């Protein structure tokens, strides 16, 4: 694995969020809900909600990455998941930080299929080998990405006494 990385600062994140919101608006898509994939898509979902005037925000927790370039065999949704009845008939914008393998986005898109009027996907970064092509992406890269919220180690370790 190369040591070269894509580095996203908080300032660039703000620019990316605004430009992605403009892409969505320019396409004519008017989502009723922004469904963020936790944890990476939370900040993007919140930013898009404000920029697009969407107050209906929801979260789906999916675990796939366990470390730098280390992942589970398949992504898994963790409870609680939104009830399908809550999504019925809505136009949903699924937000995540990156479409790396694309399998997380694919899982969430399949979860929404058949329950929503329409689901579109938005990511900050799209990787060329992703199995799903996001509807909206800010940039494409094949590098490992240092996001501002995960570039530094946690301030506390699991299992440490408080």
Question: Please, could you describe this protein's structure?
Answer:
The protein has 162 residues and is an alpha/beta fold. The protein has one domain (5-146): Rossmann fold (3-Layer(aba) Sandwich), CATH 3.40.50.2020. 27% of the residues lie in helices and 34% in strands. The protein has four helices and eight strands, in the order βαβαββαβαβββ. It has helices at residues 10-27, 42-52, 84-87, 103-112, and strands at residues 5-7, 33-38, 57-67, 70-78, 91-99, 118-126, 136-140, 144-146. The protein has a six-stranded mixed sheet with strand order 4-3-2-5-6-7, sandwiched between helices. A two-stranded parallel ribbon has the order 1-8. Strand 2, helix 2 (42-52) and strand 3 form a beta-alpha-beta unit. Helix 1 (10-27) packs across helix 2 (42-52). 31% of the residues are buried. The mean pLDDT is 87. Residues 11-150 form the Phosphoribosyltransferase domain. This is Phosphoribosyltransferase domain-containing protein. Keywords: Glycosyltransferase, Transferase. Pfam families: Pribosyltran (PF00156).
């Amino acid at each position: 694995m190369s040591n070269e990385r894509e580095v996203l600062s908080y300032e660039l994140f703000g620019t990316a969020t605004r430009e992605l919101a403009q892409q969505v608006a320019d396409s004519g898509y008017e989502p009723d809900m922004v469904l963020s994939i936790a944890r990476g898509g939370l900040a993007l979902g919140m930013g898009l909600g404000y920029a697009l005037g969407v107050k209906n925000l929801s979260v789906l927790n999916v675990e796939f990455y366990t470390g730098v370039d280390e992942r589970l065999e398949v992504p898994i949704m963790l409870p609680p998941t939104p009830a399908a009845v809550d999504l019925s008939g809505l136009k949903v914008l699924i937000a995540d930080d990156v479409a790396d393998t694309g399998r997380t986005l694919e899982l969430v898109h399949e979860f929404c299929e058949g329950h929503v009027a329409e689901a579109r996907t938005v990511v900050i970064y799209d990787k060329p080998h992703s199995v799903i092509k996001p509807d909206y992406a800010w940039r494409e890269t094949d590098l490992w990405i240092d996001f501002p919220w995960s570039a530094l180690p946690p301030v506390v370790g699991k299992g440490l006494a408080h």
